[in-house]
Amino acid sequence: MDCTEARNHLLDRRRGALTGELRARANSHLAECEACRREDAADRELSLALQDRLPKRRAPEALRRSIETRLVGQPPRAAAGTRRTRRAPLFASAAFGASFAVAAAFLLWMPHGSDPMLAEAVNDHLRVLYSDHPVEVESGGIHQVKPWFAGRLDFAPVIAFSGDDEFPLQGGAVAYFVDRKAATFIFKRRLHVITLFVFRAEGLQWPALATHPVGDARGTLETSRGFHVLMWKKGDLGYALVSDVDPTDLQTLAVKVAGGA
After folding, report:
1. d(C-alpha 14, C-alpha 83), whole Å
2. Can you state the angle between helices 34-52 and 116-130, rounded to 10 degrees?
3. Of 84, 107, 154, 164, which is most buried with the most CB atoms under 10 A?
4. What structural domains does the chain harbor?
């Protein structure tokens, strides 16, 4: 296992999602590679900072029920006037426990004053900014970057823009958005970094009011912690563009990504 493959599995390894031979290969590489151990330690510290050191509030009950239902199926209803004391048998599975723990951390806590998807988009953008190796595949054009994701994601990212002089494409990487893997495309606008996350859209609590045109779709534009986030859905995929550039630049890039210009 080389460094690029190992770093692609670091988050899965910490979350307990790697098993068998793949986990053994990742462990073996980390035992021998100091650079990847530093990368793993730095990302672990960032995760702790984002989870523990920001102001927090409880996520909405509707969001908790939505993700819980998607993970375990329809939860059993408690009899009137009684409290539920049993847990579904699925909780006995170690693999399920690991995935539920990830979702539970997201469900229970998020930065104060932010909706869940907005907070997630900004946190994931910060991971890119703070990472020593934000790009796992260097850009030689979109037709080089997109095929790299084959076998690394459970969907094929759809993006119509390959970068230009205004918004050069730097490369791509695999990330997580909430509880699912995402394709990450990194663009530049002068000295600013713009991160595009592409992910499966189902099961997420999307804002009800989408007013910003993005090609033939409609999206939402919000600001949190100084970063602008433009999110939209197209088909069964979701898109989130995040940066501190001017919002008009972000919308211009979104239209290009969606194939509207």
Report:
1. 34
2. 150
3. 107
4. 3-52 (no CATH), 55-73+92-113 (no CATH), 116-257 (3.30.200.100)
Q: Where are the alpha helices (DSSP H) in 83-176?
A: 94-108, 116-130, 142-148
Q: Which tens digits make up the pLDDT trace of 205-229?
A: 887 777 888 888 889 999 998 999 9
pLDDT of residue 135: 86
> Which class for 224: exposed (0-12), middle (13-18), buried (19 or more C-beta within 10 A)?
middle
pTM score > 0.70 for this model? no
Partners of 43 in the beta sheet?
none
Conformational region of residue 235, where left means phi above 0, alpha means psi within -120 to 50, and beta covers everything else: left
Q: Which residue has the higher pLDDT, 134 or 164?
A: 164
Q: What is the largest CA-CA distance in the chain?
A: 64
